[in-house]
Amino acid sequence: MVPPEKLVILDDKGSHIPHYNLGPYNEGSSVDITCVATGGRPPPRVTWWQENALLDDSFEQLSDGRVQNIHKLERLGRRHLNTVFTCQASNNNLVAPISSAVTIDMNPQHTLSKKKTSTITPEPALREQQFSLYLAVSPSSPPPPICACAQQSTTSLAL
């Protein structure tokens, strides 16, 4: 019995993932991540995990003897930002499995919560005066575009 030697994680284009960071991907997109195990007799079982939960154990042996598991991430959402996915390969219970992990980077869609917005209507006496508005934006990656636009006697913010 020979344990597997090496794991490689590939992105949906078949490229090796640099620095174990995958993405960034836009919210709502789907992506395939592939884990390929080299070596091992008998061929290893290749699985995908998120924390301690088994996500995918649908591996296949390739013609060159390597074993791969392609895990499909459907409709990425905010919950996937900085999520760690771990690939494991093992062919026996005597030796600990080898593993490699990737972290998902995302571009979440920007949303504006209506319950956190307010409308300011200046009194006639204030219309000729200068005043400041402060806009607080929750953490976002990347930061949302903010534009202040003035039209005649009103000013609006576009997000």
Automatic annotation (TrEMBL):
Domain Ig-like: 18-103
InterPro entries: Ig-like_dom, Ig-like_dom_sf, Ig-like_fold
PROSITE patterns in alphabetical order: IG_LIKE (PS50835)
Any Pfam family hit: Ig_3
Entry protein name: Ig-like domain-containing protein
Organism listed in the record: Timema douglasi
